[in-house]
Amino acid sequence: MLVSARSAAATGARHLLALGCLGLIFAANLPAQSRLRPVRPAHTYSIVARDSATGQLGVAVQSHWFSVGSAVAWAESGVGAVATQSFIEPSYGPLGLAMMRTGRTAAETLEGLLAADPYPEVRQVGMVDAQGRTAVHTGNLAIAEACQMTGAEFTVQANLMMKGTVCDAMVRAYEQTDSDLAGRMMAALEAAQAEGGDIRGKQSAALLVVRGESTGRAWADRLFDLRIEDHPEPIRELRRLLTVARAYLHMQAGDDYLTEGDIDRALEEYSRAEVILPHESEPIFWHAVTLASIGRVDESIPLFEKAFQMFPDWVVLVPRLPAAGLLPDDEGLVRRIEAAGR
Q1: Is the whole model's pTM more than 0.90, yes or no?
Q2: What is the average per-residue pLDDT within 143-150?
């Protein structure tokens, strides 16, 4: 009744009823242990954001805590993104997305969840919805140094930091970096670490980016879903994996164009992957296979030679490809390609 009275005074009876219903749903879904006491610390710094140009939604996070991404980072295409941290209640993630899916704003969603939470004073949560509206909360028992800041379609939040200036550094980096959403969020993490980061040091990090609009296939909506579970330099490793992931997005696009019969665009995508990962043999090999499969054998041979030098076992794979429809069933062609590995 106390929560209802406060809500009624602040927002009126209609909003009160909505929050009350949402609160009951949240309380019913909280694990019993969480209703008794907060038990899972995930002290950290994070950013949630929406890209105004593409509508992409994402979360990036780092902590001295194992597998921070598995509990802190949540996002759904066409719905929103959530970072739930400090003395963490993981249910804020899926329940927050469920509430925003019904049309609730980020602010309404966070207000409803906090109203039903027996321990809001130890929570730290950032949210952004599919329209770019944000909400952030830092409980008064968050461990210092703690901070939160909002900008255009993003929030940053941190607790247990070496310095209280971490959030300022994250905002500057995010706003000043010329990149896509993933690149700007990575810059925010790197700036936070450069500012001192988690007072305990480094251990895990994660980056989650989803499309702006849902395709109806959750697996296809995840553009980047990268986690460093336990590493001495998690942000540096996350940056490396982001580079690899970008190359493989081009590889996948090449495969998709090849399936559609658009050979020229497929070859363009494979070439882009090679530029991003010049020391990896896989993009080179499949680029060569595609050329050979469409009769451009002379162009393919130098690529095969390069791939075989980098990873000789590709030669073993070549004679298996005709049966899978990836090369013509031409023994002379197979022998010529294999010869490039000698």
Answers
A1: no
A2: 97
Mean pLDDT of 278-291: 94
**Taking a C-beta distance cutoff of 8 angstroms, is the pair 155, 135 a contact?**
yes
Q: What is the CATH number of domain 39-90+119-232?
A: 3.60.20.10
pLDDT at 305 over 50: yes
Residue 86: left (phi > 0), alpha (psi -120 to 50), or beta? Answer: left
What amino acid is encoded at 297 in this protein?
Answer: V
Q: Biggest alpha carbon distance in the chain?
A: 83
Q: Comparing 39-90+119-232 with 247-339, is the CATH topology the same?
A: no
Amino acid at 305: E
Sorted by sequence, the CB contacts under 8 Å of residue 102 that are 6+ apart come out as: none
Q: What is the DSSP letter of 228?
A: E
CA distance 217 to 265: 24
* Of 29 and 234, more confident: 234
Q: Does the pLDDT value for residue 117 go beyond 50?
A: yes
The CA distance from 155 to 65, in Å, is: 21
What's the average model confidence in pLDDT over 269-277? 95
Q: Taking residues 145-166, report their average pLDDT.
A: 97
Closest to 173 (Cα-Cα) out of 160, 190, 158: 190
- The length of the chain in residues reads 342
Taking 80 as the threshold, does the pLDDT of residue 17 lie above it? no
pLDDT at 59 over 70: yes
For the chain, the C-alpha Rg in angstroms (whole number) is 24
- Where do the structural domains in the chain lie, given as residue ranges? 39-90+119-232, 247-339
Which CATH class for the 247-339 domain? Answer: mainly alpha
Q: What is the rounded CA–CA span in Å between residue 286 and residue 291?
A: 9
Phi and psi of 270, rounded to 5°?
A: -60, -40
Q: For residue 3, with 0-12 CB atoms within 10 Å meaning exposed, 13-18 middle and 19 or more buried, which class applies?
A: middle
